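job 3f2a | input accepted
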Amino acid sequence: MRGLENYGYNCNINSVVQCLYATRKVRDYILQLHENDYHASGTVTGRLKCLIYEMTKDSHSPCDMSFLIGSLGSHCRVSFDFQEDSALAFKCILGAIVDEGGEPANAIGHLWDVVKEERVRCLGCNTAESTRSVINTIPVLMQDNFPDELQEYIRKYSDNTLAICNDYYCTTCHIRTQCEITSKVLSLPPAVCMTIARVINIGRSTTAHIVKTEKRFTFPETLDLKYMKGGAEPPSVDDALYELYAVIAHRGTQYCGHYTAYVQCHDKWYLADDSLVKLCSWEDVKTTYEAGSLNGVAYMLMYCKQITLH
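job 3f2a | predicted structure (310 res):
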């Protein structure tokens, strides 16, 4: 494990890169890439390959992040001259890798893809329409009436009714009526990224008041995602068991702060805080359940299928 340079604004990207490095399939795939195919043009994929290769070297000095940040900003047309959200950095990196194409780079870009189906059913005539979409992060909502433990949250809010809409135009009834919106996961990827929606609006309908909540939310080392594959109480599925291997934590307000990453590498937990990387424990990771930790609260969780990835 090696640290990464922080130029005053890129702790979000540093944390994401440490999570990518901790994903074994990313390391395996990216080191297979032919350097001449990417490096000459300064692509995000080529820069990431060079960076991960440097991170594998036995050295105590932090790695230079400037080339990756430059290529990422150019490709995504996002200014990384100030701190952006780590979830945005994650999506930008994966999106750039997919856009630049080729195998096995394409496999990296789709490693976290979750295929979902959303079904809208008219409550007047019972006609239903379904659409499919692909996401690479799964949002976990923080509301007063929702469970504050991830496994219970997955069990209760997977494949359930999302909402009742009162202003739906039905093409069969040809009127505006009520509809029921449900969503379910059709396929689970080798790796799953979950973002805890800690930034919420507590304002009224006419005035927004955006705040960050640091209330307690717990997550297990082993997560059973069988509930996301359909049915309230589906049978046990071995390939639905996932193991936690990375956590991105954030301290500060909804507008500014600092990102760190807890990553599991070679069966040991590490705290990666920019140029500083040190051994830690599962007990240290659990301090991100709620406010009070020096490294803040958990924001992004990365799980991988047992055996196949980690």
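job 3f2a | The mean pLDDT is 85.
job 3f2a | closed
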